[in-house]
TrEMBL record:
It comes from the Bacteria. Belongs to the aldo/keto reductase family. This is Aldo/keto reductase. InterPro entries: AKR, Aldo/ket_reductase_CS, NAD(P)_OxRdtase_dom_sf, NADP_OxRdtase_dom. Residues 2-240 form the NADP-dependent oxidoreductase domain. SUPFAM superfamilies: NAD(P)-linked oxidoreductase. Gene3D superfamilies: NADP-dependent oxidoreductase domain. It comes from Actinomadura chokoriensis. Keywords: NADP, Oxidoreductase.
Length: 244
C-alpha cells in the first residue's frame, strides 16, 4: 500500500532515495520507462541486500512504445537487472486503434512470466471495460492522480465494483499543506499535514506512491501506522475537492 515514487528523480538522487526508502522499510518502488531511472532503481534494489522477491517493482510502458511493447519490457528488465517486474502498467491510454492490442501485449508478458501483474494508468472505467470485454481479463490496477483537491468517489466505486486496485499519485504535490483543515487534523494527531493526506488515501484503500529526495520526508511518509483518522476527519478532507 505504500510505494515509493521516483518520477523526476535523476540518476544519483533516484539511487540514493530508493536506497533510503528500502532501508526505512518501503518494499514497493514505482518507476517507468519515461523516468529514465530504471537502472538506478535496479541497482538500489540489488545493493539493498534484500532478496528480489521482497521488493515489489512497478514499471510502465509509454504508449508510443506500444508497437514494440515486448522489446521495451525486455529493455526495462535489463535496466532493472531483474527477470520480472511485479507490475507493468500502460502509462496512459494508447490511441483507440492500439487500445486492445497493447493490452494483449501486457497479458502475453504476464503469461510469459515477465510481469507478475499487469494494469493501466490514467484510464477511465469505460476504457478499462473495453479491454476487459475484448480479452476477458481486466487490469489488476489503475494508477491515477488522487488528492484531497482532485478526487472522485464515484470513480473509486467504479473500481471497487470491478475489483480493480487504485493507486493514487501526486497526492502531496497537488495539496496545499497550509489548508487549515489539514493543519488542524495534523495538530490533533501530532503528525504533519503530509502524513494526514497519505493516511487519508489509506483510509480509502488507495495505495500511495509518495516521492521525496529528503530522508526525513521519506521516513515520515512511511510512518503512518501510529494514528488513524476519525470518520469525521476523513469526511472533512473529502470535502476539500476543488470545484469550478
Ligand atoms: N502514472 C502516472 O501518470 C504518474 C505516476 N506518478 C507516480 O507517483 C509518484 C508520486 O507523485 P509525484 O508527482 O512524484 O508527487 P508527490 O505527490 O509524491 O509529491 C512530491 C513532492 O512532495 C514533496 N514531499 C514529499 N514528502 C513530503 C513531506 N513529507 N512533506 C512535505 N513535502 C513532501 C517532495 O519534495 P522533497 O523531495 O523535498 O521531499 C516533492 O516535491 C511519482 O513519483 C511517480 O512514481 C506521478 C505522476 C504521474
Amino acid at each position: 500500500m505504500i510505494g515509493f515514487g521516483t518520477w523526476q528523480l535523476g540518476s544519483r538522487t533516484a539511487y540514493e532515495s530508493v536506497r533510503a526508502a528500502l532501508e526505512i522499510g518501503y518494499r514497493h518502488i514505482d518507476t517507468a520507462t519515461l523516468y529514465q531511472n530504471e537502472a538506478d532503481v535496479g541497482r538500489a534494489v540489488k545493493d539493498s541486500g534484500l532478496g528480489r522477491e521482497q521488493v515489489f517493482v512497478t514499471t510502465k510502458l509509454r504508449p508510443q512504445d506500444a508497437r514494440h511493447a515486448r522489446r521495451t519490457l525486455e529493455s526495462s528488465l535489463r535496466l532493472l537487472d531483474t527477470g520480472y517486474v511485479d507490475l507493468w502498467l500502460i502509462h496512459w491510454p494508447t490511441g483507440q486503434d492500439e487500445l486492445v492490442s497493447t493490452w494483449r501485449e501486457l497479458l502475453s508478458a504476464k503469461d510469459a512470466g515477465l510481469a507478475r501483474n499487469v494494469g493501466v494508468s490514467n484510464y477511465s472505467p469505460a476504457l478499462i471495460d473495453e479491454l476487459t470485454e475484448a480479452t476477458g481479463q481486466q487490469p489488476a490496477v489503475n494508477q491515477v492522480s488522487w488528492s484531497p483537491a482532485q478526487h472522485d468517489p464515484a470513480l473509486l466505486d467504479e473500481h471497487r465494483r470491478r475489483g480493480i486496485a487504485v493507486e493514487g499519485y501526486s497526492g502531496l504535490k497537488n495539496t496545499d499543506m497550509r489548508d487549515p483543515v489539514l493543519t488542524g487534523i495534523a495538530q490533533r494527531h501530532g503528525v504533519t499535514p503530509a502524513q494526514v493526506v497519505l493516511r487519508w488515501h489509506l483510509e480509502h484503500d488507495i495505495a500511495i506512491l509518495p516521492r521525496s529526495s529528503r530522508r526525513e520526508h521519506i521516513a515520515a511518509n512511511f510512518d503512518l501506522d501510529g494514528f488513524a483518522l476519525t470518520k469525521d476527519e476523513v469526511t472533512a478532507i473529502d470535502t476539500l475537492t476543488r470545484t469550478g
